[in-house]
C-alpha cells in the first residue's frame, strides 16, 4: 500500500516529518480525513488537533493554530502559524493558561484567543492519551 | 619618566582597553550571527510551502482581489524601514535610512505621500530628530525577532491598507530591509509587499525550487478565493518575518565586521604608539646622557 509523505511545518521550524497511513484534520467545513491516493486538496484549517497515524509507531496528535493543508500525489504538507506536538505540550501549563485566560474574562478577544489556544493544546494532549489506551 | 613618554603609555593603555571591548563585541556578534542564520534556515520550509500554496490558489482562482491588483490613483504608501536598535554596526542602519529616503523621494515624485512605519531605535531616532510624522514604530527586538513581532507589524500595516484612501488608508506597502546574501555580502533591498507581485515572484521561485511547474488540480476548501484571502495576510506576515530574520542576520554580520575592523585599527594604533613611545624614551635617555656628559665637562673645565 502506498503511504503519505507528511510534513508538518510551523513558521519557525519543522514539527513532524515522516510517512503515515492516514491524517485527520479539521477544516472550516468539517473534519477531513486523508488517505493515500486522495485527490489534490488545498484547505484551510481551523484551530484544532491534527491526528496522524504514522506507518510505524503510535499515533501523533498536533495542536495547530492558523494553518492550512496542501496535499498532492500523496505529499501532505500542513503549515501552521504555531504547531505543537502533543508530547511537547505541558498539560499543567496549558491548564493554567486556560484558567488564567478564563479569569481574564470573556470581553477581550485576546483572552478568548488565549483560552481557545489552551483548550486546543489540552485536547491534543488528551487525544494521544486516549488513542494510547486503544492501542 | 618624561611627560611625553607618560602620555604615550597612557594612550596605549586606553586603546588596549578599547580593543578588549571591540574584540568581545566581535565574538558576541559572531555567536549571535550563527543563531540568527539558523533561524533564517529554519523558517525556509514554511516560506516555500506558503508561496507554493498561494501560487496554486492564484493560478486557479481567476478573481483578483484588492490585495493583488494595483490602484489607479495612488495617494499614500506605507514604507517600512527595518533598522537596528543599537549602533556600532558600521553603516548598517544608515544604509537602510538612506535607501528609505531615496524611496520616499521617488514616491513623492510620483505624487504619493509616504507614511513611515519604523522598526528599530536607529530609524526612530533619525525621524524624531527631523520631527517627521511617524505612523507607527516598533523597537526592542531587532536582534532576535519573533513571529509575534512580525504579526504586530503586519497587523498595523494591514489595517492601514484596508482603510479607504480617503480615511487615511494606504494604497501600497513597501518594505526596506537588508538582505543577507552571505557573511561578506548584505544588500539593502526594497520590496513591495502589497499589492502582491506574486506571479513574477512565484514563477521564478517555482522554476528554481520546485521540479513541477504545473500545479495539480487542487480541490480548494472552502473555495479558491477564500483560501487566497486567508493566505494573503499570512503571506504578508511571513514576508515581514523573513525580512526581520534576514535583517537580524545582516545586523550581526555588519556588527561583527565593524568590530573586527575596530579591533584591527586598535591594534595598528597600539603598534604606532608603542613605536613613538620607544622613540620618546630613547630621546629621553639621549638627553640625560648628554646632560651628564655636559655637566662632567663643565666640572672638568672649571
Keywords:
heterodimer, A: 135 residues, alpha+beta, ATP Synthase, domain 1, five-stranded mixed barrel, globular, B: 302 residues, alpha/beta, Pyruvate Kinase, Chain: A, domain 1, five-stranded mixed sheet, 63% helix, ion transport (chain A)
Q: Looking at CATH, which topology of chain B would you report?
A: Pyruvate Kinase, Chain: A, domain 1
What is the total domain count of chain A? 2
Oligomer: heterodimer
Q: Give the N-terminus to C-terminus distance of chain A in angstroms.
A: 21 Å
The name CATH uses for the topology of the largest domain in chain A is ATP Synthase, domain 1
Shape of chain A: globular
The low-pLDDT segments of chain A are none
Largest interface: A-B, 26 and 28 residues
Radius of gyration of chain A: 15 Å
CATH architecture descriptor name of the largest domain in chain A? Sandwich
According to CATH, the homologous superfamily of chain B is ATP synthase, F1 complex, gamma subunit
Nearest-integer average pLDDT of chain B: 86
As a percent range, the share of strand residues of chain A is over 45%
SSE pattern of chain B: HEHEHEHEEHEH
Number of strand segments of chain B: 6
Largest sheet of chain B: 5 strands, mixed
Tally of individual helices of chain A: 2
Helix/strand class of chain A: alpha+beta
Coiled coil (chain B): 259-286
Subcellular location (chain B): Membrane
Keywords (chain B): ATP synthesis, CF(1), Coiled coil, Hydrogen ion transport, Ion transport, Membrane, Transport
Membrane topology (chain B): Peripheral membrane protein
Amino acid at each position: 500500500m502506498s503511504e503519505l509523505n507528511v510534513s508538518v511545518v510551523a513558521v519557525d521550524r519543522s514539527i513532524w516529518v515522516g510517512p503515515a497511513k492516514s491524517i485527520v484534520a479539521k477544516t472550516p467545513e468539517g473534519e477531513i480525513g486523508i488517505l493515500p491516493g486522495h485527490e489534490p486538496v488545498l484547505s484551510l484549517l481551523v484551530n484544532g488537533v491534527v491526528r496522524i497515524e504514522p506507518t510505524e509507531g503510535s499515533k501523533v496528535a498536533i495542536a495547530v493554530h492558523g494553518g492550512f493543508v496542501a496535499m498532492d500525489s500523496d505529499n501532505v504538507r500542513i503549515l501552521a502559524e504555531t504547531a505543537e506536538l502533543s508530547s511537547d505540550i505541558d498539560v499543567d501549563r496549558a491548564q493554567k493558561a486556560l484558567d488564567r485566560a478564563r479569569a481574564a474574562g470573556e470581553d477581550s478577544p485576546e483572552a478568548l484567543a488565549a483560552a481557545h489556544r489552551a483548550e486546543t493544546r489540552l485536547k491534543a494532549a488528551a487525544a494521544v492519551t486516549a488513542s494510547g489506551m486503544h492501542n | 619618566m618624561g611627560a611625553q613618554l607618560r602620555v604615550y603609555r597612557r594612550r596605549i593603555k586606553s586603546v588596549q582597553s578599547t580593543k578588549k571591548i571591540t574584540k568581545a563585541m566581535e565574538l558576541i556578534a559572531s555567536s549571535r550571527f550563527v543563531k540568527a542564520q539558523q533561524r533564517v534556515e529554519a523558517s525556509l520550509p514554511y516560506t516555500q510551502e506558503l508561496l507554493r500554496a498561494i501560487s496554486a490558489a492564484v493560478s486557479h482562482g481567476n478573481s483578483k482581489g484588492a490585495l493583488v491588483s494595483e490602484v489607479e490613483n495612488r495617494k499614500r504608501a506605507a514604507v517600512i524601514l527595518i533598522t537596528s536598535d543599537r549602533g556600532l554596526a558600521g553603516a548598517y542602519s544608515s544604509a537602510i535610512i538612506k535607501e528609505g529616503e531615496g524611496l520616499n523621494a521617488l514616491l513623492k515624485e510620483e505624487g504619493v505621500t509616504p507614511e513611515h512605519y519604523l522598526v528599530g531605535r536607529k530609524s526612530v531616532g533619525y525621524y524624531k530628530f527631523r520631527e517627521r510624522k511617524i505612523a507607527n514604530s516598533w523597537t526592542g527586538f531587532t536582534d532576535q525577532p519573533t513571529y509575534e513581532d512580525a504579526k504586530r507589524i503586519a497587523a498595523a500595516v494591514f489595517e492601514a491598507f484596508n482603510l479607504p484612501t480617503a480615511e487615511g488608508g494606504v494604497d501600497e506597502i513597501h518594505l526596506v530591509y537588508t538582505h543577507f546574501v552571505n557573511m561578506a555580502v548584505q544588500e539593502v533591498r526594497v520590496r513591495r509587499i502589497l499589492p502582491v507581485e506574486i506571479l513574477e515572484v512565484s514563477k521564478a521561485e517555482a522554476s528554481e525550487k520546485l521540479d513541477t511547474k504545473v500545479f495539480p488540480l487542487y480541490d480548494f476548501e472552502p473555495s479558491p478565493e477564500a483560501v487566497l484571502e486567508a493566505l494573503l495576510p499570512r503571506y504578508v506576515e511571513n514576508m515581514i518575518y523573513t525580512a526581520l530574520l534576514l535583517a537580524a542576520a545582516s545586523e550581526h554580520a555588519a556588527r561583527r565586521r565593524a568590530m573586527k575592523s575596530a579591533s584591527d585599527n586598535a591594534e595598528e594604533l597600539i603598534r604606532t604608539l608603542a613605536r613613538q613611545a620607544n622613540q620618546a624614551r630613547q630621546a629621553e635617555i639621549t638627553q640625560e646622557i648628554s646632560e651628564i656628559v655636559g655637566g662632567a665637562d663643565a666640572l672638568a673645565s672649571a
